[in-house]
Amino acid sequence: MSSVLETNENRLIKVSVTGAISSPVIHYPYQISAFGEPMVLPSVGGIRYNLRAGDYATGWMADHVEPGVSIKNANSDANRALNTLSCIGNEAIVFSGDAKGSKGTVVGKHGGIEHVMVDFPVEVLDKLNIGDNVLVKAYGVGLKILNAPNVKVMNLDPRVLNLLNLKFEYDCLAVPVTHLVPASIMGSGLGDIQVYSGDYDIQLFDKAVVNEYHLDDLRLGDLIAILNADHTYGRIYRSGAISIGVVVHTDCVLAGHGPGVTTIMTSSEGKIKPIIDSSANIARILKLRDDV
Questions:
Q1: Is 7 within 8 Å of 158 (Cβ atoms)?
Q2: Which of 96, 127, 164, 207 has the fewest Cβ atoms surrounding its Cβ within 10 A?
Q3: Which H or E element spans position 77?
Q4: 154-180: per-residue pLDDT in tens?
Q5: How much is the pTM?
Q6: Mean pLDDT (whole number) for 241-257
Q7: Partners of 135 in the beta sheet?
Q8: CB 171 within 8 A of CB 219
Q9: Going from the N-terminus, what domains does the chain have, and what CATH number goes with each?
């Protein structure tokens, strides 16, 4: 096996998809936590001025809060295309409003609400408004590692794959991750029949497991490895399988929920070897900010 990744990057289509910055929505002020406590908290949508990829995913007075900016298309089919074709690492460009022409980066996708999250520099966030149009140069769907046929790639811009400097160790692809996560604590998103949009939540309600796997310091943008999880044709438990994802939203108080993960790789045969690396975060890999 060649030690250099061979991909089909030159055969992928780059296509425009678009959405508008979505407003936060609240259906009812109170949410009931997994421990029976009524809580009123910020949640999905809007522009987050103090939460970006690279920040902690836990410890906030928040529920499912998405980093950076959330975009959505009002047309359901167009929004499905936005969520399916956008990939982590794609370039995003503001096409209306005071920040017109500013560039950002796709950092995640959130199921249920069907948002795509885009990171922008702080100075751009202050110029944005609800309803501003954002175009994404969607690129990455169909990406394959030709000399790792047992590893399936999804939701990932080829430039991110290249920046990971992946290596082969024997017949496995060694992938840097900040944390290992047991499939036993994965919640919302389990059983979905596809992983080209949406996310999969890490439940953090069992403190013994959180302590064992050091999950209290998860950050938005972290690459993590989910053990015994196969995402080839949806999300299932499979002994020995490995899936790699990016943390895309904050912790949650609702039962069955927690920090969300968008899948970027999976191997039903366990041909991924996770390597612990505290710097394996999208904000660092893509140099989105200088303070992480």
A1: yes
A2: 207
A3: helix 76-85
A4: 999 999 999 998 999 989 999 999 999
A5: 0.95
A6: 96
A7: 18, 93
A8: no
A9: 12-138 (2.40.10.170), 152-285 (2.102.30.10)
Residue 133 β-bridge partners: 20
Instruction: Quote the CA–CA distance of 72 and 79 in Å, as a whole number.
Output: 6
Tokens for 21? 């910055």
Tokens of 38: 């009524």
pLDDT tens sequence across 264-281: 999 999 999 999 999 999
**Which residue pairs, CB below 8 angstroms and at least 24 apart, start in 170-173?**
171/1, 171/271, 172/270, 172/271, 172/272, 172/273, 173/145, 173/148, 173/265, 173/267, 173/271, 173/272, 173/273
Q: CA-CA distance, 40 to 27, in Å (whole number)?
A: 11
DSSP class of residue 41 equals: -
Here the tokens at position 235 are 């999300």
pLDDT tens-digit map of 14-58: 999 999 999 998 888 999 999 999 999 999 999 999 999 999 999
Instruction: Please state, in angstroms and rounded to a whole number, the distance separating the CA atoms of residues 151 and 147.
Output: 9
Residue listed under structure tokens 């496995």: 172
